[in-house]
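Thread: "does anyone have the structure for this chain?"

Original post by V.I.:
We have the sequence but no experimental structure in hand. Need at least a predicted one for the grant figures.
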Amino acid sequence: MSSSCIDQPLEIVATDGARLDGRLYLPASGRPAAALYLGHAMMVDIRTLDRPRGEGLASVLASNGIAVAAVNFRGHTLAGPRAARGFDWSYDDLVSLDMPAIAAHLENMFPDVPRFIGGHSLAGHVSLAAAASGTIPRPSGWVGLASNVWGRRYEPSLLRWTAKRALIEAFGAVTAIEGRFNSRRFGMGPAAESRSYVADLRRFGRTGRWTSRDGSADYAALARRLDVPILSVTGANDRWFGDTASVRAFVEGVGSRRTHVEISDRGPARATHMGIVINPAFRDDWRRVAEWILSNR
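Reply from O.Q.:
Generated one for you, tokens below.
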């Protein structure tokens, strides 16, 4: 573990009783200058956010003066329950139940410092939806790492969108048959995804609208009015899940104070969807994320 940060367990309970586990990373030097909720991507958990442990993304951010709360969404917690055992949840559960619990916990721990939200892929747009719809208080800023919602309006390439639509439908079809998406079987990660959650992603792709299930919250429309600093980071070799063109199109609809950074390959280290958060070759890029947070307090 890095001597410049402290790492300790974290547990948060949502209003419906769901228990969310995680890790809290604190600067060893003293009081943090800012706090950040940092969430994980789909099909994985927070272990991707500090790899290798003590030297990964979360530890680097903490070593640069930022308190980092890395929290697992429901269905991704290390102790369970999980979709593999029949547990079901929706996208709205993450927005309206998990994020308010996480934001409240962050405020209780760090009431006197600026609090930022964001994360990798899934957690990026879930936290953005929560802030835009008002299920959490207005943050000091948002950090999205390869984060975007798949929808036709966000995909400049018709060819790539055709392939993405086919992938979304296959994702949904497999889930409908088995009752969950067993990501481990396809070598895509350790955390299975639930039927309701996958149905929501399928709905986004089919309708082209990023909304709550009942349609009462249009996250895309609400995000346009979210006037906070926005940092969007992509990898130059992220070809599908968070390709730069699609992420840029997504983030252009968020607020008005936007910064976009594309991470390039560093020697043999490829700036892929997972690579930009798990490969320590990108440590200097992670430090730049910390610098952006501190400059936007």
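V.I.: this helps a lot. The CA atoms of residues 236 and 263 lie 6 Å apart.
O.Q.: and The chain has a mean pLDDT of 96.
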